[in-house]
Design goal:
It is built from 12 helices and 5 strands. With 266 residues, the chain is an alpha+beta fold. The strands form 2 sheets. The chain has a 3-stranded mixed beta sheet with strand order 1-2-3. A two-stranded antiparallel sheet has the order 4-5.
């Protein structure tokens, strides 16, 4: 499939197969390690090979309620992260998860037993999955993505490819509360924690997501007390963060914002 897609040559595949015997990696992992492929290209090919949906985790709105479906230690151990819950015909509510190894039936069975619902695998670049687990479960800073098609003549040493950050110990799932807004809309937010109860590890596992912040903004607009999530003194930081992202992604030009702001001040 890789050769037919024009991503590699037969000679490159043969060389990777020879190196695979020493490294113990899968063929695709070997091609990525030597810089012949990048993870996005490999993931898209795997999507076609196994007829599984491909997902970009950058476009997923993670919520704490969604992340609570899979414990942090299990997500870290198996390289899985919940993407969303969708109603599937004849199956009911189904959990879709991005997996480093979407062919692992044992992990899928474990997730189904844990969540009590059908689980369907999706594919995403393994580095993106590991990064999302670090950020959303353990509160770590996201790692910058490596440049695409990085040319390396030698594969990394085995100990480097197998290195992983230590998992946080299991902790209880954060409680969630449901707020009903004046228009009947319901939002789910992390419940406030009592003083001196949360440890540093708990705080990492309960780190807020963008979806949590949006829900808090909606609830605040209706007069709800969301000071645990959006303290008044952090409004300036929240606004500056949003404006920075809009400008960085080219959704607005800096001069447009300044011009509009000047108009409203006059």
């Amino acid at each position: 499939m890789l050769v037919k897609a024009g991503l590699v040559t037969e000679q490159q595949v043969e060389s990777a197969l020879e190196a695979q015997g020493k490294s113990g990696r899968k063929l695709g992992e070997e091609l990525v390690a030597t810089g012949i492929l990048d993870e996005v290209q490999l993931t898209q090919v795997l999507s076609n090979q196994f007829s599984l949906p491909w997902v970009s985790l950058n476009r997923i709105e993670f919520s704490r309620e969604l992340l609570n479906l899979i414990p942090a230690e299990l997500a870290d151990q198996h390289g899985v992260i919940p993407v969303y819950v969708r109603s599937v015909r004849r199956a009911g509510n189904t959990l879709f998860v991005a997996m480093v190894d979407p062919t692992s039936d044992d992990v899928l069975a474990q997730l189904e037993e844990l969540t009590g619902m059908p689980v369907r695998p999706m594919v995403a670049p393994p580095a993106d999955i590991r990064n999302a687990v670090r950020v959303y479960y353990f509160g770590a800073k996201p790692k910058s993505a490596p440049p695409r098609r990085a040319q390396r003549t030698e594969p990394p040493p085995p100990e480097a490819s197998l290195a992983k950050e230590p998992s946080a110990p299991p902790s209880e799932k954060p409680r969630m509360i449901t707020l009903t807004l004046l228009d009947g809309t319901q939002v789910r937010l992390p419940a406030p924690t009592k003083e001196n109860e949360a440890t540093e590890e708990d705080e990492g596992n309960q780190s807020l997501t963008a979806s949590d912040l949006v829900g808090a903004l909606l609830a605040r607009a209706q007069g709800a007390d969301v000071s645990d999530i959006l303290p008044d003194e952090r409004w300036e930081a929240l606004f500056a963060t949003l404006l920075t992202l809009l400008i960085r992604k080219g959704l607005i030009a800096d001069w447009e914002f300044v011009d509009e702001w000047t108009k409203r001040q006059s």
